[in-house]
Amino acid sequence: MAVGREGNGSVEELDAVVVGAGFAGLYMLHRLRQAGFASTVLESADDVGGTWYWNRYPGARCDIPTTDYTYSFDAELEAEWTWSEKYAAQPEILSYLQYVARKYDFRPDIRFSTRVASAAWDDAASRWTIKTDAGDRLSCRWYIMATGCLSLPKEPDILGAERFAGEVYYTSRWPHEGVDFSGKRVAVIGTGSSGIQSIPLIAKEASQLLVFQRTPNFSMPAHNGPAPTDRLKQLAEDRDAYRENARRSAAGVTMPIPVETVAMLSEDDRRRRFEEAWEEGELLAFGARFADLLANREANETISEMFRQKIREMVDDPKTAEALCPTDYPIMTKRMCLDTDYYATFNQPHVRLVNLRKHPISTITESSIDTIDESFEVDAIVYATGFDAMTGALVSVDVTGRHGLTLKRKWAHGPHTYLGLMTVGFPNLFMITGPGSPSVLSNMAVSIEQHVDWVADCLAHLRDRGLERIEPTHTAETGWDQHVHDCADITLFPVANSWYMGANVPGKPRVFLPYVGGVDVYRATCEEVVERGYLGFQLSGPAGTQCNDGVIRRVQPDVFAVLNAMAELDLPLLETLSPAEARALTTELNAARPPGPEVGEIVDGELPGPAGHLEYRLYRPPTAPGPHPIVVYFHGGGWVLGDKQSDEPLCRDLCVRADAVVVSVDYRHAPEHRFPAAADDAFAAVKWVAAHVQELGGIPGELAVAGWSAGGNLAAVACQRARDAGGPDLVGQVLLTPLTDYDMTRSSYVENADGYILTAGLMKWFWDHYADPAVRADPRVSPLRAGDLSALPPALVVTCEFDPLRDEGIAYAKALEADGVQVRLITARGHTHTSPTMVGVVLSGASIRAEVAGALRQFFAAAVQA
Ligand code: NA7
Q1: Which residue's alpha carbon is nearest to atom 27 within ligand 1?
Q2: Cα dihedral sign, 513-517-523-529
Q3: Is the N or C terminus of the chain more exposed, i.e. has fewer CB atoms within 10 Å?
Q4: For 687-699, how does the pLDDT look when each residue is reduced to its tens digit (9 = 90+)?
Q5: Rounded to an integer, what distance in angstroms lies between the CA atom of residue 564 and that of residue 718?
Q6: Binding site membership of 148 for ligand 1 (Cβ less than 6 Å)
Q7: DSSP letters of 568-615?
Q8: pTM for the complete prediction?
Q9: Would you say the CB of residue 386 lies under 6 angstroms from ligand 1?
């Protein structure tokens, strides 16, 4: 590759251009050089450091322990550098990066004080042309944006800001010579991390300090001091293991993984854990102690309130304390802050909090900040108002890809990326910690190294194969976008107006920007993409084109986690066991499930079946006193497994959500009792419940049936038999991933034969135990085979994408519809046969169960109207 500068106006040919000389850009340069790529780094500042070059405000520190917020690629470098504190301050981190730049002699390959003016893709040449504000033109094969997640400051969006004649400072662009606030009246606008870190120090100098707060933050004492001895000890003992553990951890810092939810802990244990986390002074400390903090609003509120109590204890003036208490978003859904004496600062007589929620700023004048009811004369304003995070620095440069598409236009409604690394339409453009990667939700040092390594390895791979171009496919990118949103949707993050959501910048699309699936999961995903031949990427060059197109994560993130956990248990396949063994195993597994929500009452009883008594369990909703509509429910288990309480979490959930009595009926099981025993029992149970509605606390005329899997089969069959027998009247049927037909050759059987808990082999085992081949076409076991489906109760059919039974469920819904039955079909994307029933485990199933409950409520409401 020709390298060389050809004078003003000429084009300089390089292999790679990197933008940014912070943590990411420096390591990228290192890897590119090592691999022999001719590279240059463009940096707008006049030295290395990135974030740590610009953010020089008083008190600026990292919020991840510096033992972990550090490069790990070179043991020698690690041996040479010792951090002085648990959370090193900005000057020390900047010195570190300067040291790194010296050690590896980076500076000759960095063009300082140089900004990218534009970057354009030349499709014919498969190269990028970069123009700088210094007039340089560079041509490169690989264009790598290491521009940082929090690097483009947010424009001050306050009326009159430009009129102010006093001193104006931005925490993100702090003067190198420092600022002396002695004797000055100072206003700080913004109470994010930058405001919270700087306010106590500014208060030490200023004669008067006004803190203008729009949204209070959760901030905890950093307890800064010497680096934690336990971490240092572990590092000293086995550095490689320590770093590798961090790389394979959820957030890039090794932390315990909690199993207990807030509700599972006693009040004392909650308090103890809370105090421990508070003392630890680490952002991840709370998440490491309460499993459902970011998933369960109630759990989150419990811990949020404990936090608010701390604030009230630390701040003398109750009104100020209350204003400092965050109340309108769950803890941790906006980035928490670490501070030194932040809350105590408000106890000083010359410090005042101005609550902008109650007293919004009307304007800034030449000498004051005016709220709607007061004018504050100040000498200096410090804007600690944050950044256009994650996408700002990427779209602020004029980047033009294929067919003249600009990145800004492509991302007008939110970013689209594959793995947060690349975006369709912009070949050979890489982002380090781009949107859709763990980035700001992780230890940036770990995530940066992982991205840089991935990119460097990818470029070497391409070069070795004579390839010169890489771009994700639409399929892969759309799939990843979906996965990123699926991950966010099972957390509380989207409810907060945070910069993670783009909510801090007026007009910015509301999209959750980082990947919340975890550093460990994400790393494994990136590795898997490579192992599967760069799945979802098109690679091309003179040597040809290759593309293994596809979506890397199609199952819901929590379903994926369950499947992995099940795989790790290495359980025997049920179909290899005897029915007794299979029953024992499922009972054991069921015992470990969360119980489901609290119901008003649980009553066990017996009802007469055609061949003896059948047990049932009745769940009554918490809404007293009733009566309520009744749902007769049939459990799953392939006619072989399960009993009246084996689907208890689901029954409780349905009971509460639908506000209905759920009667879960046991029935005779195969192989002891083969076809049609289960179907006969189910119909007998429906008739008995219909005849005893009032005694059971039900409402006459409001009776529905529901069932999951084989229970869905029994519910469907019961509806057909009730119709044919002239009663009882049923107002609706809910069929959850039902078994409707004996044909095991449909596509869903082939596609999902293995790997999703219910296998094709297990289905065969169920069928063989229950029904002889000769009787399988009987509608009492294959309800799809009934010649006439008209006049059946309205139905809700739920099918799951990764379920062998998917297609027969869809076929039944279509057949019902064709015969004039009112039917709604839910096709649950990314779910398996079992996942929507996993209450409290598969959170993404909650929306499906909400729809099921909604359908039941509609059935009952329609019955009342009729
Ligand atoms: P943040 O966390 O975005 O904080 C910015 C603060 O400025 C936040 O309190 C904002 O309130 C406030 N703000 C922004 N615009 C205004 C206007 N117009 N009026 C009043 N207040 C305003 O940025 P930081 O620099 O503190 O921290 C960024 C990250 O760096 C941090 O999370 C760490 O990861 C390191 P809002 O919450 O939007 O109501």
Answers
A1: 193
A2: negative
A3: C
A4: 999 999 999 999 9
A5: 36
A6: no
A7: HHTPPPGGGS-HHHHHHHHHHHHHTS---S--SEEEEEEEEEBTEEEE
A8: 0.95
A9: yes
